[in-house]
Design brief:
Elements (H helix, E strand, L loop, with lengths): L3 E4 L6 H12 L4 E5 L10 E3 L5 H11 L3 E4 L5 H6 L1 H21 L3 E3 L2 E2 L23 H20 L3 E2 L1 E3 L1 E3 L12 H11 L2 E4 L7 E5 H13 L11 E2 L3 E3 L1 H9 L6 E4 L3 H9 L7 H7 L7 H21 L1
Parallel strand pairs: 1-2, 1-4, 2-3, 4-5, 5-7, 6-8, 8-12, 9-11, 10-14
Antiparallel strand pairs: 11-13
Helix pairs in contact: 2-4, 4-5, 6-8, 6-11
The chain binds (3R)-3-hydroxy-L-norvaline (VAH).
The site of (3R)-3-hydroxy-L-norvaline (VAH) has 13 residues, from strand 9.
InterPro entries: Epimerase_deHydtase (IPR001509), NAD(P)-bd_dom_sf (IPR036291), NAD(P)_epim/dehydratase (IPR051225)
GO molecular function: L-threonine 3-dehydrogenase activity
Protein name: UDP-glucose 4-epimerase
Length: about 325
Amino acid sequence: MKKIMVTGALGQIGSELIEKLRSIYGEDNVLATDIRKLEYTKGPFEVLDVTDGQRMYDLAKDFGADTMMHLAALLSATAERNPLLAWNLNMGGLMNALEVSRELNMQFFTPSSIGAFGPSTPKKDTPQDTLQRPTTMYGVNKVAGELLCDYYFNRFGVDTRGVRFPGLISYVTPPGGGTTDYAVEIFYEAIEQGKYTSYIQEGTYMDMMYMPDALQAIVDLMEADSSKLVHRNAFNITAMSFEPSQLAAEIKKHLPHFTMGYEVDPVRQAIADSWPNSLNIEAAQKEWNFKTEYDLARMTADMLEKLKIKLHKKAIS
Ligand code: VAH
């Protein structure tokens, strides 16, 4: 990886991945793209609608990109509200990114998700290779995406790689449209309101990961020895599995007056219920030495510390 093009660069993963990649490979070697431009963006940036394959090709070629990190997609809850738009954007954008990577001989990364599993998938210690019958449009997109990436590797020799991300928790960019977003919103409201009403019911376990671990996993996988990758495009990875009341209890250790309530959103609860509780990550550990630094306690402490600074700055600005 030397010249990297990132789509969806202003999203929850993208906004932090750009910084991480630039700190490793150099600011001028990472081209950020997204459908909109912020008034101020550091480093190379281009507006790109990922359904415009020709513009994606032109940008990659002009930049001399040797790596494509395709992040632009609609997340699970948004996709359920607009399944046709989700299919066109998630699958059309992915096909364009794979085609550009094939034509320009680029290494390729795109994330799958625990959303690629469905209610008939074993929920505990979910195997790397198992039944995948998701019941959401997002899940259908993710399973189709995993198969497409395998196809581009086997048929065209594109060095495609990917992971099944759990819910990601970060303080930099507020999340948008996910089912696991309660695990991010709770921190903002705990600091600002001292309370939070969860749309996911107590007892609903989901896999989660702190963003620093997610970003390191992307870099480690992309730098791994290709000959050792068996699963290549859809590695199960996770750092922790918890349900809302466990996260609330951890926050209360830092904010003793924090209170948690529940007002279940049936759409996002149904999505969460269809996903696994905890993934088996042995394949990622064995094939590219996947590891994490943050558990629930360490993530909670860091989120609260960093978010207090961020929200204080906003309050006084
Ligand atoms: C979502 N945060 O909730 C994303 C992710 C595993 C969850 O794919 O849609």
